[in-house]
Amino acid sequence: MTSERLYTKPTSVQEALQTAREYKNDFAFIAGGTDALVNKYQGNVDYNCMIDITGLHELKQVSVSGNDLSIGALVRLDDLGKFGMITDRFPALVQAAGEVASPMLRKSATLGGNVLCENRCSYYNQSEFWREAVGYCLKCEGDICIATGGKKACFSKFVSDTAPVLIAANARLEVHDTDGVRIIPLEAIYTGDGIKPRNLSPTSLVTRIVLPLTTEYQIIFRKLRPREAVDFTSLTTAVSLDKAGLVRIVVGGVDPKPVVIDGKKGEDKDALVKKALSKCRVVDNDYYSRNYRRDMMQLFLKESLDQMW
How far is residue 152's CA from residue 158's CA, in Å, rounded to a whole number? Predict the structure, then answer.
């Protein structure tokens, strides 16, 4: 590895992985850059190498293979609605993508980038000057979680809007790494640790999001945020029901990882909602208070389940 600043634009996945191996923990994959570059300019991350993967055209394709719908990680959020297979089978995914950030940002931001969006906290996602003035937190090498006062755990919140819908539809990821290719459930990559929210290796490159076509889903998506555009989520819920009567509740914005509850149609709805509430580790690190977000989560989930029942 060298301390020289480097920008590179590989033309193949293998070339991208080779550069990642060379720079190890001192690089970032860049696609839309709507999250990674902001974090860099705020001083939340620093790296000497930027690997621009927008030249990997195979990651911009949407295709059907057997019983799976494959969406390239570099498909832009604004383009998801242009593919009939997505709009017909997974309209909630198009809805969720359409509520990320603003129209201008969605023309650059990618589905893979949103799935891997860095955890956020109102005490962390600030300028370097602000963070120095208020005191560094656990996520930026401080010794305390400012939101809770604790010294052991970071509760920065999981803020992807598309991931809850994808998890509700049992999505998987195709991940390339230096030791080969693997397919893993999307929900399995999230750790629940606010400091290291994903258990992917530093050189992992997510190439595709894979959705099953063997099951039809009804998915209801809801989102809470201060403004209709730009703001990251304060609460995201996705509730799915398949033809076999299986129910899946996925909640984002209220825990360091997506909270997933499985059930069956006909179960006590209040019990399902209570179970979801009990698993969410909500803290005051958002524009809205902890209690308000819990109240809205209960409302969103009850309304979604009522609509499905």
Answer: 18
Residue type, 98: G
CA distance 258 to 240: 15
Please give the full DSSP string across 127-193, using - where no structure is assigned. Answer: -HHHHHHH---GGGT-SS-TTT--SS---PBP--SHHHHHHHTT-EEEEEETTEEEEEEGGGGB-S-
Q: Which residue has the tokens 């914005």?
A: 253
Residues pairing with 205 in the sheet: 176
The pairing of beta strand 205-212 with beta strand 180-185: unpaired
The pair of three-digit structure tokens given for residue 126, joined into one six-digit string? 């600030």
Helix (H, G, I), strand (E, B) or coil at 80: helix
The DSSP bridge partners found for residue 110 are: 76
CA–CA distance, 52 with 176 (Å, rounded to integer): 16
Beta strands in the chain (DSSP E): 6-8, 27-30, 49-52, 62-65, 68-72, 172-177, 180-185, 205-212, 217-224, 235-242, 246-252, 259-264
Quickly count: other Cβ atoms within 10 Å of residue 257's Cβ: 20
CA 236 and chain centroid, separation: 11
Per-residue pLDDT tens over the stretch 293-305: 999 999 999 999 9
Domains and CATH numbers, the chain: 6-120+155-308 (3.30.465.10)
pLDDT digits (tens, 9 = 90+) for 109-145: 999 999 999 999 999 999 889 999 999 999 998 999 9
